[in-house]
Amino acid sequence: MRRSVFNEDHEAFRKTIRAFIEAEVVPVYDEWFAAGQAPRDFYYKLGELGVFGIRVPEEYGGAGIESHKYEAVMYEETSRAGVNFGGSGVHVLLGLPYIEMLATDEQKQRFLPKFVSGEEMWALAMTEPGTGSDVAGMKTTAKLSEDGTHYVLNGAKTFITGGVHADRVIVCARTSAPSAEDRRFGISLFAVDTKSEGYSVGRKLDKLGLKTSDTAELAFVDVKVPVEDLLGEENKGFGYLGKNLASERWGIAFGAYAQAKAAVRFAQQYVQERTVFGKPVASFQNTKFELAACQAEVDAAEAVVDRALEALDAGELTPAEAASAKLFATEVAHRVIDKCLQLHGGYGFMNEYPIARLYADNRVNRIYGGTSEVMKMIIAKDMGL
């Protein structure tokens, strides 16, 4: 099936990324896995490679290419190699859209050159202990000082991807109480410097999967945030979050599809090499049928995520379309990766095999960025139900 989503420039970038992964990531990936995070200096290498600046305007040190297709190539190539780039994914997928959409010219001049180089890694702190998907229920507060020069930030966040290494975190906090008409009113966004007094990183969370991606608890005790670090307008944060959820959900959808595609490749290689009862596992009809069904599902998911990618680049991806793509691709990946692990037999349960890590990494796709149940609610609402 011919794909039209990528051109020669994307394929040239693919070769560069594939060579970079083989040279810089694969040889040390087991060390990252054991440590539970990628090393901080790896992000400088990504900065030197130029991957953080693809969508950043040239005046701030980027390439100025308004497209998510290079990110899509990276999803495919990291999955193909059975690795990931630690917490750096959220730097671009979650950090950059808020800077692009909300930052003033002065803020962009301060933030973007360091963003591009990897000198300042960004993360997004939305989720709180006890609130989960209910963003409007957050308790973290930011109160303007009497002299109007800074906000005083108090509260806690959890499940913050990239939270250990982050140099700046976009923190969602209440600057006003919710209104009677709208409980989502009163949330604001701040670009918080993690070196600020009173800011602390709690536990690095021990996750089922995504072992090389640092995920942390954060705490804020009377953290002074300069008014110059407010992103956008006060009390309008929930609306800003909603606008960027479509691109986040596309990213999760595309990443899940790439994992499913990689799982089929790993299983195909394994069953051709492994013999039982004197014959290759690939020679059994059950193996052929299972992998054929997996390939058909991956083909369908590819069509869905490619269509969503084109819509995203055109600025036309709706929240319901993003939810639909995420729901479909993540559920496909769940089924496909499970079947591909089964074809590995006992070795599929061993972490030294990429399929085992892929199985664990994939599970969160149906939870973060909005659970599958939340996706169904969004789609149903769009259907007028």
UniProtKB/TrEMBL annotation:
Cofactor(s) recorded in Swiss-Prot or TrEMBL: FAD
SUPFAM superfamilies: Acyl-CoA dehydrogenase C-terminal domain-like (SSF47203), Acyl-CoA dehydrogenase NM domain-like (SSF56645)
UniProtKB keywords: FAD, Flavoprotein, Oxidoreductase
Gene3D superfamilies attached to this UniProt entry: Acyl-CoA dehydrogenase/oxidase, N-terminal domain, Butyryl-CoA Dehydrogenase, subunit A, domain 2, Butyryl-CoA Dehydrogenase, subunit A, domain 3
Alphabetical list of InterPro entries matching this protein: Acyl-CoA_DH_CS, Acyl-CoA_Oxase/DH_mid-dom, Acyl-CoA_Oxase/DH_mid-dom_sf, AcylCo_DH-like_C, AcylCo_DH/oxidase_C, AcylCoA_DH/ox_N, AcylCoA_DH/ox_N_sf, AcylCoA_DH/oxidase_NM_dom_sf
Superkingdom, taxonomy of origin: Bacteria
Residue stretches making up the Acyl-CoA dehydrogenase/oxidase C-terminal domain: 235-383
Domain Acyl-CoA oxidase/dehydrogenase middle per the UniProt entry, residue ranges: 123-223
Signal peptide positions on this chain: none
Keyword hit for Cytoplasm: no
Every Acyl-CoA dehydrogenase/oxidase N-terminal domain range: 7-119
Pfam families named among the record's database cross-references: Acyl-CoA_dh_1, Acyl-CoA_dh_M, Acyl-CoA_dh_N
Family from the record: Belongs to the acyl-CoA dehydrogenase family.
Protein name (record): Acyl-CoA dehydrogenase
Protein's organism: Streptomyces chryseus
